[in-house]
Amino acid sequence: MKKTVWLMVLLGLIGLSLAQAQPRTVKIGFVSTLSGGGAALGIDVRDGFNLALRHLNNQLGGLPVEVLVADDQQNPDVARQAVDRMLKRDRVDFLTGIIFSNILLAVGDAIFEEKTFYISPNAGPSEYAGEQCNPFFVNVAWQNDNLHEAMGQYVQTRRFENVFLLAPNYPAGRDALTGFKRYFKGRVVAEVYHRLGQLDFSAEIAQIRAARPKAVYAFEPGAMGVNFIKQYAEAGLLREIPLFLPGFSADADVIRAVGRGMVGIYNSSQWTLELNNPINQRFVEDFRKTYGRIPTLYASQGYDTALMLDAAIKAVGGDLSKKDELRKAMLAGFNSTRGFIRFSPNGYPIQNYYLRQVIQQPGGEIINRQVGTIFTNHRDAYVDKCRLR
Amino acid sequence: MLPSLFVEQVLNGFQFGLMLFLLAAGLTLVLGIMDTINLAHGSLYMIGAYLTATLVGTTGNFWLAVPLAVLGTALIGMLLELSVLRQLYQRDHLSQVLATFALILIINEVVRMIWGSQPLLLSTPEALSGPVELLPGLYYPAFRLVIIGVGLLVALLLFWLVNRTKVGMWLRAGASNREMAQAMGVPIKPLFTLLFGVGAGLSAIAGAFLGPILAVQIGMGESILILAFVVIVIGGIGSIKGALVGALLVGFVDTAGRAFLPLLLSQVASPEVASNLGPALASILIYLLMAVVLFLKPQGLFPVRT
Q1: Domain ranges in chain B?
Q2: Which of A197, A331, A346, B263 is the most buried (most CB within 10 A)?
Q3: Which of A37, A202, A235 sits opposite B131 (nearest CB)?
Q4: Contact A78, A98 (CB under 8 A)
């Protein structure tokens, strides 16, 4: 009897050591918007993420990677189903990929309850920055307000008396205009919100024309941006009232669709094509070579998401059960396409924000050029309300 | 209120309403005359837009691409009628809804296979991409004026077809009493195929002209189909006149709601509340309109069957 027990224990130990010798894989659930009007954003984040995995030999922190991809169709219900499946059935170690804040807010609690990290490559709602901040949330890119704060600051330095504000009616849209107004001290002629996903802006453009503002600031990501800028130009307003945009509405995806009309437009971004560090140079060069198009800020965010995971998993020696250490490692920072980036206790980055201008190069290619720095080591406005340390 | 803003919004409402009419006309005829619910009508609108975008890419000429796309969509519509819809006339509405909903899913996937899941780009023709000065100080995009023109032209043609031709007479007869029309020797089978083709062609015109303003993407048909159904319910099922009036009403109410409701609300409530409540109220306004019309005239504004 005693012998058998000892044998069992021995066998168990051997089994245990075998299990440990076998390299564990890290499972990533990637839920993103890959179809419809927001598809360009999700596809860029995904392609950037995949490019980084290729550069890392399909390993994150030394562990082989398995990525499960799902399309949320920009629909919170579809996203919720995909996330539940990945949490309960596939038992992923990390979730990432979501583009739109309303979708992230619909699935966030379910992810945090499972004590699974959500690494946001894009959506950065103010809700998760302040009182509701969560130890399982990290945003690689920015807090929603940030790029708009930068543009508010820039329009303020240009001394425009007043400005007309436009954004879709969803959490990131409200964050956007809140951020802009935080730094713009002039008068706000009107603050107009429209349905998320709206593509015909005739009613809003008529309002802008009637209000005769000195400048217009519009947060319109994806297909909304393409349509708004095209229609703004077709209405003849682009020459009359200067239009200022965040990087989301003026990056390569929108430029490709709108064309020459974009030349001259100023916009803000946390990342630029010409940031001078070896990681960024390799990223930009290989992205163009692999996918045949100019990377956007979204692509850089996807790329950085993989780099952050790589650095954090390396720091804990591949032991994904050490959640506290993982979080500490992530917040301590990593080398990104934007240089070394640190994070606030609420999981949002502390970084520079740049001014870019759309220009046409001598060869005819239309790109964004970095023309200045608006904020250095800027943090988000909500971090003091977060109790995490 | 500035008069130029008002005029511009009226034009916007007109433009949107006329395009809705093109969609609703086909839908109301199919539902009124064939007594068939065709949920896949929006898919034909999508096919029209995709064909236009592709043909603009190959021919480089918008004005050549549109008639070809309309013809192509009409043919596809007639093929659909011959192969699928014809089997459904004798079935109840539930089977029709199920079958045509399946068609939506199938067509969406086929389009995804052919064109991919990212929206296609369809630009306004270069010559029409600027504004036109209608009155001193009142500029309006040239392309939208063309849309209004095309919409009016097609509406006139359709009225002539329905009210002044023999085919139109058959259509009206079929709409008011199908069995009687059949008994009087109206060739119902070829008529239905033709009618379906015309409906498909009309929705393709809407797709071709809305494509450059909106986006050519999968699912574009479903969102506008709901509006088209609202239009025909308001106008009275089977009535072309009802479709026109209903479409213009919906166009105006939608545009006015989006443009003026937030302004009005900001007079009485704080900007925060107005900006939150305004868009929400504006988007339910057309359904409110439908409810009111149905309450007062349950058969719609211009009932065909009495």
Answers
A1: 2-218
A2: A346
A3: A235
A4: no
